[in-house]
């Protein structure tokens, strides 16, 4: 199954989004969410490696019209890589203020999209797209392997030692669904339900089992403010 994942936005969107990202980063550091901040930076690097290195250079499925491909994808990867990984980390932390952080991220996405549409008519229009047939199969395999590890571990474990599969699925689907829905409802993404449904089930969700184990390993020795864990 192949379909095009596309967006159309203007240069003001990028400016506003960078301001939002800086604000989010400042808030994370102010409230000593340092591990979340660093995890977000790692997400930005990972997304750039995938989007520019794999989708564009290796597979040739990514197309950018109206902007430099390298710099545009660097911003795009930072935008969603940072916010997604920060949000996932806070969820895995069971942060007591997860509702506030979640609302801030989602309304930030909505505000950036709608403000850019209202006031960005004088800015450069940028169109981006990518096909999906060349890599969704590989993504599905990564998804299967990750959740199979969790399922097999749970089948072998006592009830009190089982891993939280439903929470993993909730996090993985919600994070992707939220920004896919914002893009669709604000007109940045062309109408169509395939990207919303398939991407929400697959594209972020595939990494959640692995991120769960990474989070568990890191927080075993470090607290959120980077101080050593006290037992």
Low confidence ranges: none
Derived from helix and strand composition plus strand pairing, the structural class reads mainly alpha
What is the helix content? Answer: 55-70%
Question: How many domains, as an integer?
Answer: 1
Task: Summarize this structure as a short list of keywords or feature phrases.
3 strands; mainly alpha; globular; 3-stranded antiparallel β-sheet; 67% helix; 231 residues
What does this molecule look like?
There is one protein chain. The protein is mainly α and 231 residues long. The protein has one domain. It is 67% helix and 7% strand. The protein is built from 8 helices and 3 strands; from the N terminus they run E-H-H-E-H-H-E-H-H-H-H. The protein has helices spanning 11-30, 34-58, 69-92, 98-119, 136-156, 165-185, 194-202, 208-219; strands at 5-10, 62-65, 125-130. Strands 1-3-2 form a 3-stranded antiparallel beta sheet. Helix 3 (69-92) crosses helix 6 (165-185) and helix 6 (165-185) packs antiparallel against helix 7. The longest helix is centred in the N-terminal third of the chain and has 25 residues, at 34-58. The chain is globular. The relative contact order is 0.16. The model has no long low-confidence stretch (mean pLDDT 92).
Secondary structure elements and pairings:
Elements: E1 5-10, H1 11-30, H2 34-58, E2 62-65, H3 69-92, H4 98-119, E3 125-130, H5 136-156, H6 165-185, H7 194-202, H8 208-219
Antiparallel strand pairs: 1-3, 2-3
Helix pairs in contact: 1-3, 1-4, 2-3, 3-4, 3-6, 4-6, 6-7
């Amino acid at each position: 199954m192949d379909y095009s994942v596309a967006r159309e936005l203007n240069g003001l969107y990028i400016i506003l989004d960078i301001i939002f990202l800086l604000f989010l980063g400042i808030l994370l550091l102010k409230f000593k969410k340092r591990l979340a901040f660093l995890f977000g930076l790692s997400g930005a690097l990972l997304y750039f490696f995938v989007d520019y290195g794999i989708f564009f250079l290796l597979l040739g499925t990514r197309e950018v019209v109206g902007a430099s491909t390298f710099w545009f994808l660097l911003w795009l990867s930072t935008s969603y890589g940072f916010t997604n990984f920060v949000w996932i980390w806070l969820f895995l932390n069971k942060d007591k203020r997860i509702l506030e952080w979640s609302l801030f991220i989602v309304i930030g996405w909505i505000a950036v999209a709608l403000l850019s549409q209202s006031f960005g008519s004088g800015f450069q229009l940028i169109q981006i797209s990518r096909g999906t047939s060349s890599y969704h199969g590989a993504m599905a395999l990564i998804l299967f392997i990750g959740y199979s590890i969790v399922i097999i571990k749970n089948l072998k474990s006592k009830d009190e030692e089982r891993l939280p599969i439903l929470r993993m699925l909730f996090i993985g689907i919600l994070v992707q669904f939220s920004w896919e829905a914002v893009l669709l409802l604000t007109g940045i993404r062309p109408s169509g339900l395939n990207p919303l449904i398939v991407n929400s089930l697959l594209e972020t969700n595939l990494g959640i089992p692995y991120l769960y184990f990474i989070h568990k390993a890191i927080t075993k020795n470090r607290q959120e403010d980077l101080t050593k864990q006290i037992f």
